């Protein structure tokens, strides 16, 4: 009898294993720069525990580039999960491209500054120090995403140096700002901290002062044309869970206040 029970138990385990394999899916995840470093840490962990595989498609949250997530969806590309700047996600929800009930908030991203490796590390702890650095800089680079739009349209004005600094500023498309600074193309560069930290060849100076900071909330949702919405929901639950916040913070992001 014991042998029979063991055989039945083994058969049940085999059936459960086969069922799990049969239910495993390949999820298409479109993610923009600010959350990508955290996603690259967490994605493999989720895949290992769930059995699902993740096909990752990188693209900015906005802009004219064909790789931009809104442009991909407008062309009819399929996605299960989209991870992007919160207000850009809200626009996709308005357009019917993302399920409004699926929206989850993931992390806050702040703007930081880098200089080329080997350069002196300036102080930018106060508005006055940041203003002085920008006035002395020969060239200033910033991204073509949310942080760069803020730098170009608001930060210089807030600091009262729009006329002096605006002409030497450059919005960098498609490539990380820190890469352009590392090559020596620009003296200082600004982008969300999580996008600056992974790039070699630069010194991370720090976050810009909170008094002139722009906090970008990253959020995620399930695309309306998702082929695997149930598995997509499980992934979103994992990415926004309390147990992964230490890893999220390690990439330069801040946890969403509760």
TrEMBL record:
<feature type="signal peptide">
    <location>
        <begin position="1"/>
        <end position="24"/>
    </location>
</feature>
<dbReference type="Pfam" id="PF13531">
    <property type="entry name" value="SBP_bac_11"/>
</dbReference>
<dbReference type="InterPro" id="IPR050682">
    <property type="entry name" value="ModA/WtpA"/>
</dbReference>
<keyword id="KW-0732">Signal</keyword>
<protein>
    <submittedName>
        <fullName>Molybdenum ABC transporter substrate-binding protein</fullName>
    </submittedName>
</protein>
